[in-house]
Design brief:
Length: about 120
């Protein structure tokens, strides 16, 4: 039960962070789904930092990993919104933007993970 509460708290925090990122982009009304891309990038960046620090420098408890990785990063990143937005782009005839969204989400998320690991190694 303790682990469920930890994941619940981390996921809630991540979801609120995701909501705030989306709200920040609303004022610009971008044509491209930048809020989802930003959330996925930042979530992978945090994930990379936590994985690297817990593996090499910090003795991180399983509870802390559940809170940050499964909870926060799981709530902050958003595969379902990415999929919905991509299908919407395809449906509205914006094939180039849909393909760019797929490529950018994948490439930038992988790059963010590695960047997070590199940043963690500086500590």
């Amino acid at each position: 039960m303790k682990n469920i509460i930890i994941v619940f708290f981390g996921g809630g925090t991540g979801s609120v962070a995701r909501y705030l990122v989306g709200k920040a982009y609303l004022q610009w009304k971008p044509v491209f789904p930048l809020a989802t891309l930003t959330s996925n990038f930042l979530s992978c960046f945090v994930f990379g930092i936590v994985v690297c620090l817990s593996a090499q420098k910090l003795a991180m408890s399983d509870s802390a990993k559940l809170l940050l990785l499964t909870g926060f990063c799981g709530g902050f990143s958003t595969y379902s919104a990415f999929t919905y937005e991509t299908v919407g782009l395809f449906s509205s005839g914006k094939t180039g933007m849909a393909l760019a969204n797929i490529v950018l989400n994948f490439v930038l998320s992988v790059a963010a993970f590695y960047l997070g690991m590199l940043v963690a190694k500086l500590f």
